[in-house]
Amino acid sequence: MTAEVTMTINGEGVASAEVLEVVNPATAEVFAQAPRASESHLNAAVAAAQAALPAWKGLPHAERAALMVAAGDAILANADELAALFTAEQGRPLKQAREEVMGAGMWFKGMARFELPVEVVEDSKRRRVEVHREAIGVVCAIVPWNFPVLLASWKMSHGLLAGNTMVLKPSPFTPLATLRIGEILRDVLPPGVLNVISGGDELGPMMTAHPGFAKISFTGSTATGKRIMASAAQDLKRVTLELGGNDACIVLPDVDLDEVAPQLFMGAFFNTAQVCIATKRLYIHDSIYDALRDKLHALAKTMKVGPGDQSDSVFGPLQNRPQFERVKGIIADAKSRGLTVLDGGPVPDQGYFLPLTLVDNPPEDEVVVKEEAFGPILPLLRYQDIDEVIARANNSEYGLAGAVWSKDIDQAVAVAKRLDTGTVWINQNLQTTPSTPLGGHKHSGIGVENGLEGLLEFTQGKTIFIPKAATG
Ligand code: NAD
User: Fold this and answer.
1) Residues 6 or more apart whose Cβ sits within 8 Å of residue 134
2) Both 451 and 417 in a single domain?
3) Shared domain check, 263 and 357
4) What's the gap in Å between 373 CA and the centre of ligand 1?
5) How many domains does the chain have?
């Protein structure tokens, strides 16, 4: 497959002299090229977004909402083409890639239901005081490679609905489907409202330092998030940071093992474990530990890992070579340190494939427990007592999400309330919706996406004092 995609600047297709090579992670071979934006492309994109801002911000909210619905429909109408591009560049099996693309379309439509509230904080004889919410300005949106299309749709569907204009940058590893969405939405949105540019490692820092942006919406690693916040401090850009996680999942002793094992497995390994909100530490009660470990290991040995364009593949490759080498190193390190590593089944020789690997009850201070691997290696951890396991789960600099599994929902809710994370699922995993705020505690982020709270992150308040009489 080859893909000829252009950047979108001021509603026009823009190519570049220099290009990025895009690798298919299932083959480790270059299969396409994408534009590599220069500083002048960035300046042009910011200028276009600034020029489009007054008219876009001035539209009635309902008109912007209608355009968001139209944007969602346009993505849905092109789902098959986008899914094929997605699988080629990201690696995920085609059916799941299509689900992400469909999710992106649905997100635009789901967020369009939200309105910007006007809060009346005083209504006295003397005056009425209203708090309005209005757009912030031009948004710099930066996304990672693990959910490239869905996470971009979150930023577009929030930021544009609120009346901002935007320059969106996909990861250099997965630029194609996002650039293609920029092309598709040229027919829906006024020129300059959404600009999509791709580039190498130099482009992100150039963007966050650009004085033309009023807000940065970033999803990616905690290390990059800290750099972005430092950069934003120079001119007090607003930031929303959705960062890394090391999510704990706690399995209480009363669960039905046959029922929960496959669900726990997918909660950890979906997208080859490259999910910010995946289970990355699985705490299992001592009384069921051995039996559940064996069931999970049986799944790891039998679930099909293979190229995303083969219909029976459930898990694809790691998305890129640096991530592949890093996770391979974590698996090798666990083995060399004498941990009990339970190997997964066979994987293809070519491409960035790794087996779905479990580690049997390693000490808490091992790298495989403390760090976010962001790849298919999952520590299984034995616990005895609920207070002990909650303390262990909370003993992390991260606080993104977590999960509790039990037949006793009241007890599970009680445990959920004690976890220091932005989201907790009970008897489910990885659930997100346009209505449910998602954000991290501690080093997992600042602010949220989704729901009214997520939309309000793309606004600033304005308090208006309105006298009841015409003179003061
Ligand atoms: P990353 O931080 O390396 O890169 C993310 C994006 O930032 C890319 O587009 C990259 O080009 C850009 N970038 C890199 N350095 C930059 C800089 N100095 N200034 C500006 N932009 C820069 O992350 P990644 O490896 O692509 O993604 C994996 C990480 O993302 C994991 O830690 C994962 O947990 C996290 N993540 C978090 C969420 C969430 O919602 N909290 C969702 C998905 C992924």
Assistant:
1) 57, 116, 163, 459, 460, 462
2) no
3) yes
4) 14
5) 2
Strand (E) positions, 212-324?
215-219, 238-242, 247-251, 279-285
| Residue linked to tokens 């059916």 | 95
Q: Which of 100, 140, 276, 449 is catalytic?
A: 276
Domain that holds residue 259: 247-426
Q: For a substitution probing ligand 1, which of 146, 210, 247, 320 has the most ligand atoms within 8 Å of its CB?
A: 146
Which CATH number do you get for residue 87?
3.40.605.10
Predicted confidence (pLDDT) at residue 323 exceeds the cutoff of 80:
yes
DSSP 434: T
- In this predicted structure, the answer to whether residue 472 has a pLDDT above a threshold of 60 is no
CB 71 within 8 A of CB 188: yes
Same domain, 222 and 366: no
Question: Is 421 contained in some domain?
Answer: yes
Is 388 considered catalytic here?
no
Helix (H) or strand (E) holding 358: strand 357-360
Residue 289 resides in a domain = yes
338, with CB counted inside 10 A (0-12, 13-18, 19+), is exposed
Q: Residue 171 C-alpha to ligand 1 middle, in angstroms?
A: 8
Q: Which of 89, 100, 242, 372 is catalytic?
A: 242
Q: Phi and psi at residue 411, in whole multiples of 5°? A: -65, -40
pLDDT in tens, 389-398: 999 999 999 9
pLDDT at residue 2 tops 90: no
Given ligand 1 and candidates 22, 203, 216, 224, which is best to mutate, with the most ligand atoms within 8 Å of its CB? 224
- Shared-domain flag, residues 144 and 171: yes
Ligand 1: which residues within 6 Å by Cβ? 142-147, 151, 169, 171-172, 204-205, 208, 219-221, 224, 227-228, 242-245, 276, 372, 374, 400, 440, 445
- Examine the domain organization and report whether 140 and 256 are in the same domain: no
Q: Please indicate, yes or no, whether residues 280 and 213 belong to a single structural domain of this protein.
A: no
- 373 lies in a domain? yes
Whichever domain contains 262, its CATH number is 3.40.309.10
Domain shared by 323 and 459, yes or no: no
202 is catalytic: no
Q: Given the structure tokens 């299992």, which residue do they identify?
A: 284
Candidate of 20, 90, 92, 142 to mutate for ligand 1, largest count of ligand atoms within 8 Å of Cβ = 142
The answer to whether residues 295 and 235 belong to one domain is no
Residue 472 falls within a domain, yes or no? no
Amino acid in position 466: I
- pTM for the model: 0.97
Indicate whether 381 pLDDT > 70.
Answer: yes
